[in-house]
Amino acid sequence: MALGLFRVCLVVVTAIINHPLLFPRENATVPENEEEIIRKMQAHQEKLQLEQLRLEEEVARMAAEKEALERVAEEGQQQNESRTAWDLWSTLCMILFLVIEVWRQDHQDAPSPECPGGDEDELPSLEGAPLRGLSLANKGTLDHFYERCIRGATADAARTREFVEGFVDDLLEALRSLCNRDTDMEVEDFIGVDSMYENWQVDRPLLCDLFVPFMPPEPYHFHAELCCSRRSVPLGRQGYGQIKVVRANEDSLGCICDKTKLGEDMLCLLHGKNRLERPGGEVETLLCARDSPYLDTLQVMKWFQTALTRAWHRIAHKYEFDLAFGQLDTPGSLKIRFRSGKFMPFNLIPVIQCDDSDLYFVSHLPREPSGEAPASSTDWLLSFAVYERHFLRMTSKALPEGACHLSCLQIASFLLSKQSRLTGPSGLSNYHLKTALLHLLVSRRPADWEAGQLDARLHELLCFLEKSLLEKKLHHFFIGNRKAPNAVGLPEAVRRAEPLNLFRPFVLQRSLYRKTVDSFYEMLKNAPVLISEYSLHIPSDHTGLPPKAVVL
């Protein structure tokens, strides 16, 4: 009983102790809150991971930017170092180029007995031999050829010159009688130039080239402007100039009204600058380009041909032959036609003297040496024909008696003429042959031009031409040539100018260059046969009047 009572009491006490109202349990809700806490912790952990990823990306980006900046700085430093090295290398190259150019200018005219050719990718190999190993006739055949063919062909040169000069004197006198001294051009006496007056003409028919200088009436005068004297001039215009028509009393400080003499800082209110440069008048209207104070070559050509026609009509009754223009595009290209059918050509070329020198401006030459057309009709070609004639005369006095320099030029001109008839004209002309000879005359001793050295000097002349062709470079003998003798009396502006390359057209026209080189070697190949044949038989020249001739 007591045990049962004890058990009941124990149950009651246990129930009371475990009753929630008497002793509430704080951890009774842990199972419910734990899941929410876990979810929050997971969400927080995810935020922390995202933040960690963002921070890692930011750190990586900053590291990349830092690396890029370091790379740019390193490259900039390398570029500065390389630029400094390149500037130094460029300076050294420029100095080396100037040294080479100075050396080349000093040695460009030296004779080359071996005639080495330049490297030309479009030409066949020379195999180390000058003139491609081609040989001319031997000394005996060459001397016989010259005595029988060349010397005999030039025997009539003196009579031809005498006849043409007499007729031209009469023609120009008739022209002057038709001119008005107050308004027309003043025509001066003619000047004989080129091969007929330098004693090396060989081609038939014999052709006289005569310069006819003319001057404007008062109060005008011509003011020459040389392109080669300018600091910067295009390569194609080095051999040209312009001629300005101005009044004799016109200067930079005065005015065309001639009523005041103005100072440098004063301006005439009645006449503008254009009126000062171009006063206007019959001379400008007749010979100048439109709206320009410069002489126009086409206008001068028209005036000269008209004047010659009028002069011939005045004296035609005195002669038993006709006079005709040979080439319509060449002023003064004339032909005398005899009743027998023969004719005699000659060239009257209107020219303008450059200041007080022997340099002349020509509209263009019948055999223009430059090979390039002028850029404008106001560009006049510079002619050194009078200087060339003086130089040859002066040089001949210093050479041994019977020197072979003109004989070399005659034979080379003969071969070129025959080759041109076979294959047509090329870019090589007699003017180039003469220029090559002038260079050799300066570089060779007088004793080297004895008559017995004809074959050696002819071979050297052809070698010089070959070398010049392969290099596409043949400098004008006077323009920019500081080795030209001072006794010639060249204008200082011409001597100090940049050298003029007569073979510049070959650089610009490859087809012309190829044709010229082929024609040159073909001429050398045919030379022995031509010399042999003409030594045995001299064919007679039966020349007739070309069909296109305009009768005056």
UniProtKB/TrEMBL annotation:
InterPro entries: ITPRIP-like (IPR026250), Mab-21_HhH/H2TH-like (IPR046906), MAB21L/cGLR (IPR024810). It is found in: Cell membrane; Nucleus outer membrane. The gene is ITPRIP. Its main location: membrane. Residues 1-15 form the signal peptide. It is a single-pass type I membrane protein. Keywords: Cell membrane, Coiled coil, Glycoprotein, Membrane, Nucleus, Signal, Transmembrane, Transmembrane helix. This is Inositol 1,4,5-trisphosphate receptor-interacting protein. Residues 425-479 form the Mab-21-like HhH/H2TH-like domain. Gene3D superfamilies: 1.10.1410.40. Residues 38-79 form a coiled coil. Belongs to the ITPRIP family. It comes from the Eukaryota. GO terms for molecular function: protein kinase inhibitor activity. GO terms for cellular component: nuclear outer membrane; plasma membrane. Enhances Ca(2+)-mediated inhibition of inositol 1,4,5-triphosphate receptor (ITPR) Ca(2+) release. Transmembrane segments: none annotated. The lineage of its organism: Eukaryota, Metazoa, Chordata, Craniata, Vertebrata.
